[in-house]
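Is this the right way to post structure tokens for a design question? Let me know if I should format differently. Anyway, here goes:
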């Protein structure tokens, strides 16, 4: 059994390194560059992740494909934000820009007990250092849990875990883009709401635009929880598929999304845990976004079923 666990851990770490090397090699082979020509930038009025536009002002009705930085522009914040999706954005924060993401979630868990959890402010602070790199800070959440058992009600509250991370945006091609990020979380929260161990994850993020409205994103993450010796460790692969639809027929400030999140356990044989979530985003201004979201588990969790609703905002400074 110990040999299997060591092999599983080695497989996860080797896969993580291979993922980053592959993404880097692909981006280098494609010789990605950000085009700063102002005429091309002016043509980009859509914020879909990885969106690349056709220049329609070429004489003789011949179109020339131009790689456009869709992480910039009047509605780009819809693409740049990590929230409200579980998956991260393919875009890094621009140089010297700060992005603050905040939210509130009300979660209902049903099983042997009936629990509700309220989590806020779900903070994520992102800072662009330049050269397509951003630094991330995850301050702790405040969590209030209410448990109803046999007519009795109990409440506990406290802080969740904090963490830090970094993202690198490799660039984009004709209709797609690549990025990778990694994060480390620390056992800094109350025991009831903490992983009680240091955790680490590395993600490869891919974005593809079907057209000017619809975008598809795929994120594959490798997660490991470094539990103390003698305690249960966790290692999982976490693929996430997300589809966005920017409703340009109504307004380019409005975007819908749907997402499927999966956690594939590599150590304990518990199989696949799946969630679906969906929501709507709206830009109040070029630098202010608000959103609504809801989600539910597709597979039975070991302890209960979960449904949640939430709302939040994203701000760029």
């Amino acid at each position: 059994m110990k040999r299997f666990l060591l092999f599983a851990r080695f497989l996860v770490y080797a896969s993580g390194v291979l993922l980053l090397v592959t993404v880097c090699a692909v981006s280098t082979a494609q010789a990605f560059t950000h085009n700063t020509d102002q005429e091309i930038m002016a043509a980009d009025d859509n914020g879909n992740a990885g969106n690349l536009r056709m220049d329609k002002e070429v004489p003789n009705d011949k179109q020339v494909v131009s790689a456009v930085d869709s992480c910039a522009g009047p509605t780009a914040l819809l693409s740049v934000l990590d929230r409200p999706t579980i998956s991260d954005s393919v875009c890094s924060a621009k140089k010297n820009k700060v992005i603050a993401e905040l939210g509130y979630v009300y979660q209902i868990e049903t099983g042997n007990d009936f629990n509700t959890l309220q989590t806020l402010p779900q903070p994520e602070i992102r800072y662009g250092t330049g050269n397509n790199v951003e630094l991330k800070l995850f301050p702790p959440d405040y969590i209030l849990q209410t448990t109803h058992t046999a007519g009795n009600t109990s409440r506990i509250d406290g802080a969740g875990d904090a963490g830090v991370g970094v993202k690198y945006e490799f660039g984009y091609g004709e209709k797609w883009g690549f990025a990778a990020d990694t994060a480390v979380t620390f056992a800094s929260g109350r025991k009831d709401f903490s992983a009680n161990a240091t955790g680490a994850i590395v993600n490869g993020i891919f974005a593809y635009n079907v057209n000017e409205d619809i975008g598809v994103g795929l994120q594959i993450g490798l997660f490991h929880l470094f539990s103390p010796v003698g305690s249960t460790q966790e290692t999982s692969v976490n693929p996430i598929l997300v589809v966005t639809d920017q409703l340009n027929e109504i307004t380019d400030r409005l975007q819908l999304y749907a997402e499927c999140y999966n956690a594939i356990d590599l150590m304990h044989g518990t199989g696949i845990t799946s969630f679906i979530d969906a929501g709507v985003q709206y830009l109040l201004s070029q630098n202010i976004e608000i959103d609504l979201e809801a989600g539910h588990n597709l597979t039975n969790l070991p302890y209960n079923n979960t449904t949640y609703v939430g709302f939040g905002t994203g701000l760029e400074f």
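Format looks fine. Someone answered above. Worth noting: Residues 1-66 have pLDDT under 50 and may be disordered. The chain has one domain: 2-316.
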